[in-house]
């Protein structure tokens, strides 16, 4: 494998792993989260729904913005956005704030899925 293609492939694999891991962690802790926030399972399902919707919206937008402003710069912004969203999820004191933080996290996670693939 060429050295030039090795790092983008590694970054892409890490990004996909992080985005998938994030949804897996939330899925396995959904019952505990519902009890902590005092919401029904129906409302608790929104944590996964909003994240998936955020990914679906952000992937094509991140791809278009990367064409305009550069892949590396936008990838770093997406990583920061995902990190900020993750911090806000951890600091959530209400279910509404938690859902908003999940959307921010998903907007950053969408860049993980689209941007490194554009570098090949």
Overview of this structure, please?
It contains six helices and no strands. The model has no long low-confidence stretch (mean pLDDT 84). It is mostly helical and 120 residues long. 85% of the residues lie in helices and 0% in strands. It is elongated and about 50 Å long. Helix 4 packs across helix 6 (95-114) and helix 5 (71-90) runs antiparallel to helix 6. It has helices spanning 3-28, 30-37, 41-44, 46-69, 71-90, 95-114.
Largest sheet, strands/sense/barrel: none
Radius of gyration of CA atoms, rounded to a whole number: 15 Å
Roughly what is the average pLDDT, rounded to an integer? 84
- What global shape is seen? elongated
Question: How many β-strand runs?
Answer: 0
- Going by helix content, strand content and strand pairing, the class is mainly alpha
Number of helices: 6
Percent in strands: under 5%
Helix content: over 70%
Parts with pLDDT < 50 across at least 5 consecutive residues: none
Order of H and E elements: HHHHHH
Distance between the termini: 13 Å
Architecture blueprint of SSEs:
Layout: H1 3-28, H2 30-37, H3 41-44, H4 46-69, H5 71-90, H6 95-114
Helix pairs in contact: 1-6, 4-5, 4-6, 5-6
Provide a compact summary of the structure.
The chain has 120 residues and is mostly helical.
What features would you highlight for this structure?
6 helices, mainly alpha, single chain, 120 residues, elongated
């Amino acid at each position: 494998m060429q050295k030039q293609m090795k790092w983008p492939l590694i970054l892409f694999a890490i990004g996909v792993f992080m985005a998938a891991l994030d949804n897996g962690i939330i899925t396995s802790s959904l019952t505990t989260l519902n009890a902590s926030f005092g919401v029904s399972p129906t409302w608790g399902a929104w944590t996964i729904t909003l994240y998936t919707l955020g990914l679906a919206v952000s992937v094509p937008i991140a791809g278009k913005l990367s064409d305009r402003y550069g892949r590396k710069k936008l990838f770093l912004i997406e990583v920061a956005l995902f990190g900020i969203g993750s911090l806000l999820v951890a600091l959530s004191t209400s279910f509404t704030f938690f859902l908003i933080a999940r959307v921010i996290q998903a907007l950053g996670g969408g860049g993980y899925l689209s941007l490194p693939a554009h570098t090949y």
